[in-house]
Amino acid sequence: MNKLMKSSLAAVLALGLVGCSGSTPAADGGTTDGGDEGSKITIGFVTDKGGIDDKSFNQTTYKGIVQFAEENGLKEGTDYSYLQSNTDADYTPNLTQFADEQVDLEVAAGYLFEGAVNDTVKQYPDQKILIIDVGWLEDSPNLQQAVFAEHEGSFLVGVVAGLKAIENGSKHVGMVIGMKSDSMFKFWAGFQQGVWAVCPDCIISFDSCEDFAAPEKGKTLAQKQFNNGATVIFSCAGASGNGVIQEGAERRGNGEDVWVIGVDTDQYEQGIYEGSVAEGNEKSAILTSMMKRVDVAAYNACKQVAEGNFVHGVVNYTLADGGVSLPENNPNLTEDVLKTVDEWTQKIISGEVTVDSKAIETDDRIQ
Amino acid sequence: MKKYKASTISLIAVLIGFLLASLLLLVTGRNPVNMFIAILRAMIGFDLTHPEKGVNILYPLNWLLNSMPVILTGLSVAFAYRTGMFNIGGEGQFIVGALACTFVAFYVPLPAGIHTVACVLAGGLAGALWAFLPGFLKAMRNINEVVICIMLNYTALYLNTFMIRNVLPININTLHETVKFPETVSLGSLNFGTASKFNWGFVFVIIALLLYWFIIEKTSFGFSLRATGFNKEGARYAGMSTTKNTVLSMMIAGAFVGVAGAIVTIGVYGYGRIFDAFDNYGFDGISVALIGACKTSGILFGGLLIGLLKSATTTLQRMGMTKSITNLIQACILILIAIQYGIVLVLNMINSKKDKKVKEDA
User: Fold this and answer.
1) What is the pTM of this model?
2) B318 and A83 in contact by Cβ < 8 A?
3) CA distance A21 to chain B (A)
4) CATH number of this structure's domain A43-148, picked from the four choices 3.40.50.2300, 1.20.1050.10, 3.40.50.150, 3.20.20.30
5) DSSP string covering A50-109
């Protein structure tokens, strides 16, 4: 027995030695204080359970960090890196790991990090942290909270929806939200103003899933709105919104002229419907998406740290600074529509039009 | 054929598990030494690549923190196993434990200290009740407890979501968890100035370990449980109530996990939360029980090992290795223990060769 133990131990050690000579050393755990080296900074990004390739907040945020890193010649692994979390219990240890290594900036995206970030900010008063899409934490000199002017972005997709409803003659659009809450009503306010800006007599169907994780509810409400005559629905309900997209894609697959507008990230891929794939040219039921540019927020925070002017408190990303926008590519929008959207964008940026973040709750045109 | 101690087989399985992981790292062009450096760092907080930084107590504290729930779930699986049952319902029992603890935290006002203990006991009770059904159906109608347990896991998951969304005071900013527990509910903090969430919950773990040892090894009740596990019909012939034993054994197993759910909820989070998916503490308990061969000391070491692998995912990722490597090690160990007869065969072959050689030499 003892001999067996010894030989397996020896094998482990031997493997290690081979490894030493054979492969390159992995990422260096420690980091130097990069503050005085100009743009050479270290960045640590912690993902939630969705992982680094979630096609949503995590992936997009990291894209912003990578963009900054490439522009400044930072190396992945040594200068910037990410830690993925298996469970909610990993958030604090992962944030702590980077804080312990004294990275110049830590980034976390989404409300799931609320508690863990709050703890880490207090535990490590010198550790700069950016949390994205959370704006209600207690202010601290080392914490930046990035929030977005969702009402302005929603105004633009409202314009798109209104124009589409005029084009196909229905003059009827819809919106499905996840929950009747203040933050959701910001989307609703912008959307209704946008629709009525281009189509004052358009009808808007408005429903709430009262659930962010129930695609079947989103699907049912989308069915109801489409059946009532809506031709474009703004799906604004987290995972419940996937049901809206699914319903839109199924109907387009059956030849109906209906559309869905995505939210948070470019949801074009999710709306690709079956019939079109078989024909070889993929088409999506997603007309366009109201994007929150979490990558811009991450990029800007990195830049601020590099330039030594990190801003604490709540940072509001608006249309003017590219914090909310339509996707770069909109295969389903015509040049004319995009031109009109640009005109409205300019009007909002110049202050000629202000988008109210309070929604009108009762109106004859709301169903 | 020679018999080997369970601990010998577990030890061999663990060694081979690490060996295979090292091989895999080597094949994928990474240095396996870094894996051991990362695991050492997660264990004692000493970074061999930066010896000047000294020992950081944060890491051992996080290791112990990660081990607490898996030791409890390991005890649970082992307890049921000794009575001839397989408790794969740990996930569900964990969630109802957390839920019951959250209810008591908000709706049963008690003075500090007592309130915390009440929350933990409520968690244990809920876990026991959740495990009652599979135990009862097994005892009365011989319905396979595995199927019932797995179904109840999902029932618990959605029940918890429903309760937090509709009954408990929800955090309106996120709609994903309750507001913070009142201050009377706390397991304190034993972080020694670090950011670790290590807390007094470990006391409950030690009590659970002692209880397990005492019930299984030292009481006639434990003896009749083990007898039921060895041979149900034999136990019944000897006049033991196998029906009662089956139900009680599942309930005690469920209570261990319920307590784990409560101490994690209070100690790590401080609020009740919606589970998007299982936390896997219940499933990890199966590994712990198997590694520990259902012995008290074995479960303690098995729990510490799985806890270490869990807490090492962070340091491993920082050393440029995927976090899945720890799952791989865990899987290898499990498979090897499952085929332990094969290990015994190999050991016998080695020994018989040795014996021959000794004879020849003589």
Assistant:
1) 0.84
2) yes
3) 9
4) 3.40.50.2300
5) T-TTSSSHHHHHHHHHHHHHHHTTPPBTTTEEEE--SSGGGHHHHHHHHHHTT-SEEEEE
Q: What is the mean predicted confidence (pLDDT) over A294-300?
A: 94
Are A127 and A106 contacting, i.e. CB atoms less than 8 angstroms apart? yes
Q: Taking the CA atoms of A10, A14, A20 and A25 in sequence, report the sign of the dihedral they define.
A: negative
Count other C-beta atoms under 10 Å from residue A213's C-beta.
19
User: Does A56 lie at the interface with B, CB-CB under 8 angstroms?
Assistant: no
Question: Tell me, what amino acid is at A176?
Answer: V
Q: A183: distance to nearest CA of chain B, Å?
A: 9
**DSSP H/E element including A143:** strand A143-148
Phi-psi region of B29 (alpha: psi -120 to 50; beta: other; left: phi over 0): left
Dihedral sign from CA coordinates of A4, A10, A16, A22 = negative
Taking CA atoms, A142 is separated from A32, A62, A131, A134, A314, in Å, by 19, 20, 11, 15, 12
The SS3 call for residue A131 is strand
| Residue appearing with tokens 């169907």 | A205
B319:A19 CB<8 A: no
The amino acid at B204: F
Q: What is the band of B54 on the pLDDT scale with cuts at 50, 70, 90?
A: confident
Same CATH fold assignment for domains A43-148 and A150-291+334-350: yes
B246 Cβ partners below 8 Å, 6+ apart?
Answer: B83, B85, B135, B138, B139, B228
CA-based torsion, B73, B178, B159, B280: positive or negative: negative
Tokens of B283: 């499933």
Phi and psi (nearest 5°) for A312?
-100, 165
Say how many C-beta atoms besides its own lie within 10 A of residue B279's C-beta: 22
List the beta strands (DSSP E) in A167-285: 172-177, 203-208, 232-236, 259-264
Residue A11 touches partner B, C-beta closer than 8 Å:
yes
Query: In chain B, which residues have their Cβ closer than 8 Å to the Cβ of A25?
Result: 31, 34
Q: What is the pLDDT of residues A301-343, one digit of tens each?
A: 999 999 999 999 999 999 998 899 999 888 899 999 999 999 9
pLDDT of A6 above 60: no
Mind telling me how many Å the CA of A68 is from chain B's nearest CA?
Answer: 20
A27 contacts B33? CB cut-off 8 A: no
Give pLDDT, residue B66.
95
H or E element: which one contains A129? strand A129-132
What is the rounded distance in angstroms from the CA atom of residue B44 to the CA atom of residue B218? 35
Angstrom distance (rounded) from CA B362 to CA B349: 20
> Do B285 and B73 contact (CB within 8 A), yes or no?
yes
Backbone angles phi, psi at A234, to 5 degrees: -90, 110
Angle between helices A91-100 and A114-123 (to 10 degrees): 30
Whose CA is closest to B87, among B136, B140, B129, B150? B150
Q: Who among B26, B172, B314 is closest to A19 (CB)?
A: B26
Architecture in CATH for domain A150-291+334-350 = 3-Layer(aba) Sandwich (3.40)
- Show me where the domains of chain A are located: 43-148, 150-291+334-350
**Alpha-carbon separation of residue A18 from A12, A13, B20, B22, B288 (angstroms):** 10, 9, 15, 11, 32
Is the CB of residue A208 less than 8 Å from the CB of residue A187? no
Q: Are B135 and B246 in contact (CB under 8 A)?
A: yes
Please tell me which residue of chain A has the smallest CA distance to B327. A86
- Do A230 and A205 contact (CB within 8 A), yes or no? yes
CB-defined contacts A:B, below 8 A: 135
